Amino acid sequence: MLGTIYALLFYVATLLLVAGLVRKIWIYARTPAPLKIPTTPAPTTLGGVVLRIFMEVVFFQSLFKSNKWIWALGWMFHMSMWLVLLRHVRYFQESIWWIVELAQPFGTYAGFTMLIGLAGLLARRFLVNRVRYISAPSDYLMLVLLLLIVITGLSMRWVAHTDIVMVKSYMTGLLRFRIGELPGDFNLLAHLALVAVLMIVFPISKLLHVPGVFFSPSRNQVDNAREKRHLAPWAAELEK
């Protein structure tokens, strides 16, 4: 019964996550950018734009220039999260990729740096007046949700161990639409339920900055306003 409930939960959560992301990305892609508004100093070539977005996505370049300690907390959390996610890929594979195997020891301890980063970002919401003023309840709730996911995940590794062989068998079974047995450990069940909640709310939350950064006109535009007239597709239609 437990395995069936969680299987249905994850199938629904995955469907909502994928459908929600596809819809949002479609909206982002079709939203016109009528103005040439790259944040200066901006690149003047397409290659420069690609490099700029790469530096933003991987190193948070603009945040580093504006606030070093927020950059440190944010970068620590995001990079740790990618390591943890890479480590979790092993639960969905029969034959583990070499890069996933390589990430195992680093991903284990990345959970702690992820926790530190999240705790710092949550404290910032309370302690910095101008940030607290513009923070909505959803901002706090998303950080708390992520913190609980990390805490329950760490507890399974360092406090109350769960049967990871059974967990892997269950997860690989879900990929083949086979429902197996799931361990009844509280930490595991709480962890999986929280992850499912995150998947469901992701497409309607501020976490959509993940795909959104690639569609930001202040980042993805070439600074060539003097050389080439910027004309939105709808404006071109009016000129015909």
State the CATH superfamily name: Transmembrane di-heme cytochromes, Chain C
Order of helices and strands: HHHHHHHHHHHH
- Roughly what is the average pLDDT, rounded to an integer? 92
Overall structural class, as computed from helix and strand content, comes to: mainly alpha
Number of strands: 0
The first-to-last residue Cα distance is 63 Å
CATH topology: Fumarate Reductase Cytochrome B subunit
So what's the overall shape?
globular
User: What fraction, in percent, of the residue positions are helical?
Assistant: over 70%
What is the CATH class? Mainly Alpha
Q: Report the portion of residues in β strands.
A: under 5%
Provide a descriptive summary of the structure in words.
With 240 residues, this protein is mostly helical. The protein is 71% helix and 0% strand. The chain has a single domain (37-223), classed as Fumarate Reductase Cytochrome B subunit, CATH 1.20.950. It is globular. Helix 1 runs parallel beside helix 9 (186-201), helix 4 (68-88) packs antiparallel against helix 5 (98-127) and helix 5 (98-127) crosses helix 7.
